[in-house]
Each structure stands twice: as structure tokens, then as C-alpha cells.
## 1
Amino acid sequence: MTTPATSFQIGAEVVCSDGVCGDLIRVVFDPVKRQVTHLSVEPKGRAGLAKLVPVTLAGEDAAGLQLSCTRAEFDRLPEAEETQFLPGDEQSGYPAGQVLMWPYYGLGMGGVGGVVAAPITYDKVPLGETTVRKGEQVQATDGAIGSVRGLVIDPADHKVTHVLLDEGHLWGHKRVSIPISKVVSAQDGIHVSLSKADIQALPEVSLADLTG
């Protein structure tokens, strides 16, 4: 009997063993092995505080995306994002963009002193891996064709089998799946070895078609 595939729809609600813990905002995968390694899950109402969840904790059942940990254990997982501060000028002697520092408060000044800084948030991704976000552009051989909705994986080895794509415009879009063998790059969007016409000819799919 074939084990049903698992779909990681970006934006889906994620549930721990003792209740809802957040929403799936990104999927982290190894582009060489074509294997999902982590999920970035953001707690409800706590933007910028996402956790990096090993994919080995994740599964799918009739209730949706499930984690085999409690909410307390989820809270102890490493952060998926890091916020630093980027100086807004070159007073430090370095070009803007090359130095990161926290703002500080001058003694007795009642306000921020020194360099004015802007918060910059980075994804914390294991070396050599990359992330897939909802809405990321999919590029056919002859131009943009749609946006990423999620990934489908084989739960036995966590290898990606398909990319879920919302193809077309708001007034005539459909969801299709592209075999991972057709993905040639995941840098600056998903690039595939299919033309727009090839993708437009693919049949519309539902999650039931892929996950059985």
C-alpha cells in the first residue's frame, strides 16, 4: 500500500499535540537533495517570532498539518528569523548596508542617541538550504506563469515530489502541480523547464489528487 503524500500549503494552520501553535509561513529545503528539512511556523498574533521546526516533527491527518510536540516544546524550538538594525547613514565610517548595530539610548537624553537604525529581518536557514514562500514567482522558460502555493513531499524520506502552483490571473486561475524533476533552480523564485503553454495545459488538481 502506498503511503499518501504530505502537502505543505503555505499559510495553513499548524497544530501541536495540545492545540494550535501557529501558521506555516515558509518551507525550508535542500535544493541539492530536493528534500524538505524544516518548516517555519509563526505563532498566532506574534509576527516576526516564527520557529524553525524540523520536518521530522510534522505530519498530516484529517485535521490538517500536525506537529508531534506540545506547544511548550514548540516554544523552545530555535527562532526562524533574526532581526538586526541597519544604520540609516554613514556616520560610522562604513557604507550603509555593511554595518549592523542596535540603537542605544543616551544617558539622560530620554531618547535614541547616535545612529538612527532601521530593523532588518533575516530568515535563519541552515547552510546550503533555501526557503519557499507563498506567492513566490514561478518562472517558465518563457516568463512568469504563476505563484507558489506550497510543496508536496513523500513522508517516507521528506523528498519533494511536486510544487503546487496557482497559475493564471485572479479572474481565471487554477491550481496545478509541477513534478520536482521539472524544477531547474530555486534561486530568486522557482524556475522550471516547462513553457507557459506546457503549464497551462496541465490539469487542475486538488489536494486529494496528490495526498490520496
## 2
Amino acid sequence: MAAKIVLDAGHGGWDNGASFENRREKEDNLALTLEVGRLLKEMGFDVVFTRIEDIYQSPFKKATIGNEEGADLFVSIHRNSSAVPNQYQGVETLVYSETGVPKEVAENINEQLEQVGYVNLGIEERPNLIVLNSTQMPAVLVEAGFINSQADNKLFEERFEETAYAIAEGIKVGLYNS
């Protein structure tokens, strides 16, 4: 039986997330999440989305969707931001604890995105995040580049398909290697 993955497009509705110039994180997150889901389905995974349109759900509601689905993995997709534009660039994956399946999946996603051209900023433990601490299955939160980095936005736009594929492949390899 195929592994079930819940994909969460971070933010949504009234919650734009980070923004920079004319970009809103919620829109980048949704576009990337839908494409990652399409690719994971092609790879044979059972995929459930927390949202497929521009609606707001609390982080607890998102975690609850994952728990109700009995998923094998929960992946929340975001874009990072910093106080100063173009201060940082790169990908980072957040986990509740840097162990087990989340660590494997996070490392593999970051390595795959590094091959696309993103700077690999590594893994960070963030046990205070609801989508990581209230899910009953392994969970990761992918920060797919900085929304206020022109270099990351260029990669995001020009290598969008490769970015989505890197996340999907990172999930696949991470799940099957753990």
C-alpha cells in the first residue's frame, strides 16, 4: 500500500505569510504544494492536501487534517523571509526533533533542492510549531527559499518544476531510506 502524505500549503486566506514586492508567500506556497502533490501522485503516493484554494486554516486545523487522515508523513511548504531583503538565501527544513523519519526526509529534501541550485541551510529543530508538535505522524516544514531574496525568487520562478520535483524526490527518498 502506498504511503499517505498530507501536503500543507502554508498560510492562506487573510494570512498572506511573508511578502516581498508583489509576491505573497501564501500564493507561492499553494502553487508549489499543488505541483509537489501532482508529482507525488505520479510516483504512486496517496496525497491529501490541507487546502487547494486560498482559504485560511489555523495551524491546529492543518495538523488535525493530517491526524484524521492517518497519514504517514505531514509536509508543510513555506517560503522563508528575513528582516533585510537579500540578506539570506537558501532552503531550510524545520523538524520537531532532528531524529528518525523527519531527519531523513528533511536532509533529503534539502540535498535535492541544493542540486537545483539553492543554498542548503540545513535542518533546524522547532518544537514550538503546531504543525510539527501536534501531528501524530512524522512532520517537516520546508522553507523553499527566501521570498525576499532575488536569487531565490529567480530559482523559484525559472526552476519551478525542478524545485517541486526536488521536494517530491526528497520525500520519496527520505521515506524509503528511513
